[in-house]
Here is the input.
Amino acid sequence: MTHVSVTVGDGHRDSLDGVVESLRASGLEVEQVLGTLGIVTGSAPDDTLDALRGVEGVASVDAQLTHQLPPPDAPVQ
Amino acid sequence: MQAHPPYSAAGARALEKGSLIIAAAGNNADRRSGKPGFVGAPANSPEIMAVGALDQQLEMAFFSARSLPARGGQVDIAGPGFQVLSSWPMPTRYRSISGTSMATPHVAGIAALWAEETGRRGLELWATLCQESERLMMPSVDAGCGLCLAPQ
Here is the structure.
């Protein structure tokens, strides 16, 4: 499984619900639908990522980046 | 390092709605040993404002990342980010810490002051921050448009 952010293209931001349904049908376990941003987060088996990229209205499917803050006592934050 | 598409989309769509996202350029430089570092995500999205850190002499802090040649990987503006007096968990209360994470809230706060003063939002606010910044005698790849200044 990969944690992904799915970016919906500008042309489909008004019909986000339909895109989300198609993403679910293609294997995405949806975590959050960020309607204002047109981004859907979730996780999916690695072998379904290409199918997700093929869903109409999807601009890109990217593995989520991780961020690690330095320890609180580090001199540079 | 390529910009991350969802961060770029989020930055662009926030700007459309009048919100400006401001992020730390990153602390991966070590200028004392000639390592310039690079602007990290999400600040390397062109749609997100990247902030570098200055010290008390208005020189770049040694850790403050430099612009990359790639589109988006640039430092846009700079703020105070070296040994800044900050809040700290009890019972210590206060401590001086450094980082582009310290410079960034300075710029975000100044952006709020300009928004209040001018009513500008989004890209127009971005332009105002750059227009009103104090130019510094150093390359733009380090300090962007210079020292962010509040309305006087």
